[in-house]
Amino acid sequence: ATQSATAVSATPVAVVAAPVASSVKSSKWYDRIGLRGYVQMRYNQEAGGDAKDLRAPGDKFIGKDQGFGIRRARVVLSGDVSDRMSIYLQPDLASTPTGSSTTNFAQLRDAYADIYFDKAKTFRVRAGQSKVPYGWEDLQSSQNRLAMDRADALNSAVRDERDLGLFFYYSPGVAAERFSYLQKSGLKGSGDYGVVGLGFYNGQGANRPDRNDQLHTVLHLTYPFKFANGQYLEVGADAYAGRYKVASPTSVSIGGSTFTPSVNAPAEGSVDRRVAAHVIYYPQPFGFQAEWTVGRGPELDVARKTIRTKSLRGGYAQVMYKFDGEFGSLMPYVKWQTYRGGSKFDTNAPRMLVDELDVGVEWQPVKEVEIAVAYANMRRTDVTTAPYARVDGNLIRLQLQLNY
Amino acid sequence: ATQSATAVSATPVAVVAAPVASSVKSSKWYDRIGLRGYVQMRYNQEAGGDAKDLRAPGDKFIGKDQGFGIRRARVVLSGDVSDRMSIYLQPDLASTPTGSSTTNFAQLRDAYADIYFDKAKTFRVRAGQSKVPYGWEDLQSSQNRLAMDRADALNSAVRDERDLGLFFYYSPGVAAERFSYLQKSGLKGSGDYGVVGLGFYNGQGANRPDRNDQLHTVLHLTYPFKFANGQYLEVGADAYAGRYKVASPTSVSIGGSTFTPSVNAPAEGSVDRRVAAHVIYYPQPFGFQAEWTVGRGPELDVARKTIRTKSLRGGYAQVMYKFDGEFGSLMPYVKWQTYRGGSKFDTNAPRMLVDELDVGVEWQPVKEVEIAVAYANMRRTDVTTAPYARVDGNLIRLQLQLNY
Amino acid sequence: ATQSATAVSATPVAVVAAPVASSVKSSKWYDRIGLRGYVQMRYNQEAGGDAKDLRAPGDKFIGKDQGFGIRRARVVLSGDVSDRMSIYLQPDLASTPTGSSTTNFAQLRDAYADIYFDKAKTFRVRAGQSKVPYGWEDLQSSQNRLAMDRADALNSAVRDERDLGLFFYYSPGVAAERFSYLQKSGLKGSGDYGVVGLGFYNGQGANRPDRNDQLHTVLHLTYPFKFANGQYLEVGADAYAGRYKVASPTSVSIGGSTFTPSVNAPAEGSVDRRVAAHVIYYPQPFGFQAEWTVGRGPELDVARKTIRTKSLRGGYAQVMYKFDGEFGSLMPYVKWQTYRGGSKFDTNAPRMLVDELDVGVEWQPVKEVEIAVAYANMRRTDVTTAPYARVDGNLIRLQLQLNY
Question: Which residue has the higher pLDDT, C4 or C139?
Answer without folding.
Answer: C139
